[in-house]
């Protein structure tokens, strides 16, 4: 079931919120040894919130589409009285005295929290192979990564453990798990969803968004956390930019085949495919990496006297970030504005951009390189090179799963700033045979 179907069952009294919560909790506990998707499971709170939802619905108090629906939070969202570890040893016992805005809004919408999902340490990586809480495993093949950093959230949704989960995206950390796990992942326009109470990684790159089973579910979650309204956007007549450069380079055969099939489907539905040369994506990605190195190191520098408590990969990135000069950081932010201006001109020609979400399917846990012909590429770069530019640009972007004979593949759609509703509506129309 998706959120709408579960909600209809609740309102028809065919199922109760308590029954939904117990079913979700049973699945989480059963799957935990295999997938390790959660750091904290909130059994008592979930049942308490579910009982409240049943009571309210029985009294005619309907808080909206998420009322009584089980969900999960990535363990960077502050939750009063519940650990918020950030996937780190340093914060392993950290309990905040406040709630994040997203949690407050979801609670007000009547959603039922099942627990806090695992992630790459401090949300700084794409594997979710966490040295402190254990590797999170892909539900389609437990020997493979789920993507990161919101890996636990992607697994929880793709494995059917919850109806939606919240994640954060600094350089692809919602869309990469969505692609590798086979669910929907939305990175909204920068600033569209409040980051208050969410432990930061990159101050000017962080985005908050949902991972869901369907595109419509993502729209329902956005309605609760950002006040967006559901929009309609016919596929017919939309101008879809298909990049000739960068986004068509070094793709696995499965990704290339899925992308071609997705474009053909959109064209059959009446969309106009417009070949375009998109401005500076490789340079934008490089700018994003430099900005993140600097901002993450500035944030976590205060903890570097506890070096032995960091994972090796995160510690290495933090040490690199300390070498970035203030001049380089300021130049990167200046170039960022230049690139944003260049992309703004692109929207005169097209409505959306189509790209693959990731260049590859989910790699094996511990895999460091992926082969493209006779050349090798770092797994981290192959996973993030198509997603990171949209963090730098602050544009809304969604990853939608495309069914293949093997591992999941994600198709990414990006749009102009502030077009989140239209992006969701177009994504639903163009991909509903795949996403629903």
Characterization of this structure:
- This protein has about 425 residues and is an alpha/beta fold.
- Helix content is about 40%, strand content about 15%.
- The chain is built from 14 helices and 15 strands.
- The chain has helices spanning about 5-10, 15-35, 45-60, 100-110, 150-160, 175-180, 215-225, 255-270, 280-300, 310-320, 325-345, 380-385, 390-395, 420-435, and strands at about 40, 70-75, 110-115, 130, 135, 165-170, 185, 205-210, 240-245, 270-275, 350-355, 370, 375-380, 395-400, 410-415.
- The strands form 3 sheets. The chain has an 11-stranded mixed beta sheet, sandwiched between helices. A two-stranded antiparallel ribbon has the order 4-5.
- A hairpin with a 2-residue loop joins strand 12 and strand 13 (about 375-380).
- It starts with a helix and ends with a helix.
Q: Helix and strand layout, with pairings?
A:
Blueprint: H1 3-11, H2 17-35, E1 38-41, H3 43-58, E2 70-74, H4 101-108, E3 112-117, E4 129-130, E5 134-135, H5 151-158, E6 164-169, H6 175-181, E7 184-187, E8 207-212, H7 215-226, E9 239-243, H8 253-268, E10 272-276, H9 281-300, H10 312-321, H11 326-346, E11 352-356, E12 369-372, E13 375-378, H12 379-384, H13 388-393, E14 397-402, E15 409-415, H14 420-435
Parallel strand pairs: 2-3, 2-6, 9-10, 9-11
Antiparallel strand pairs: 1-3, 4-5, 6-8, 7-8, 7-14, 11-15, 12-13, 14-15
Helix pairs in contact: 2-3, 5-6, 7-14, 9-10, 9-11
Overview in brief:
The chain is built from 14 helices and 15 strands. By secondary structure, the chain is of the alpha/beta class.
């Amino acid at each position: 079931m998706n959120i709408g179907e579960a909600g209809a069952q609740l309102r028809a009294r065919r199922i109760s919120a308590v029954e939904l919560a117990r079913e979700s909790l049973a699945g989480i506990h059963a799957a935990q040894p295999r997938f390790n998707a959660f750091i904290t499971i909130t059994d008592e709170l979930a049942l308490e919130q579910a009982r409240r939802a049943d009571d309210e619905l029985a009294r005619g108090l309907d808080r909206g589409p998420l009322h009584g629906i089980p969900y999960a939070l990535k363990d960077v969202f502050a939750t009063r009285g519940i650990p918020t570890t950030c996937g780190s040893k340093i914060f392993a016992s950290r309990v905040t005295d406040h709630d994040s805005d997203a949690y407050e809004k979801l609670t007000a919408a009547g959603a039922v929290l099942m627990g806090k999902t695992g992630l790459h340490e401090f949300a700084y990586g794409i594997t979710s192979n966490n040295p402190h809480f254990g590797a999170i495993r892909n539900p389609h093949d437990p020997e493979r990564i789920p993507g990161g950093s919101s890996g636990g959230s992607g697994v929880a949704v793709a494995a059917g453990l919850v109806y939606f989960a919240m994640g954060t995206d600094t350089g692809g950390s919602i869309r990469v798990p969505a692609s590798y796990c086979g669910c929907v992942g939305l990175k909204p326009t920068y600033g569209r969803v409040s980051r208050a109470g969410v432990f930061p990684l990159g101050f000017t790159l962080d985005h908050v968004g949902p991972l869901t089973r369907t595109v419509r579910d993502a729209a329902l979650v956005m309605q609760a956390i950002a006040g967006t309204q559901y929009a309609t956007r016919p596929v017919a007549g939309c101008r879809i930019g298909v990049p000739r450069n960068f986004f068509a380079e070094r793709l696995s055969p499965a990704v290339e085949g899925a992308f071609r099939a997705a474009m053909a489907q959109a064209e059959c539905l009446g969309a106009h495919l417009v070949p375009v040369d998109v401005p500076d994506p490789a340079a934008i990605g490089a700018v994003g990496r430099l900005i993140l190195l600097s901002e993450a190191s500035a944030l976590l520098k205060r903890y570097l006297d506890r070096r032995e408590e960091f994972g090796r990969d995160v510690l290495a990135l933090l040490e690199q970030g300390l070498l970035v000069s203030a001049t380089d950081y300021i130049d990167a932010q200046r170039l960022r504005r230049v690139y944003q201006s260049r992309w703004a001109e692109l929207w005169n020609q097209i409505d959306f951009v189509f790209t693959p979400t990731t260049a590859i399917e989910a790699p094996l846990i511990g895999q460091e390189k992926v082969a493209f012909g006779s050349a090798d590429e770092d797994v981290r770069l192959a996973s993030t090179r198509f997603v990171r530019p949209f963090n730098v640009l602050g544009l809304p972007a969604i990853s939608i799963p495309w069914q293949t004979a093997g591992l999941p593949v994600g198709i990414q759609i990006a749009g102009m700033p502030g077009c989140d509703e239209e992006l969701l509506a177009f994504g639903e129309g163009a991909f509903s045979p795949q996403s629903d």
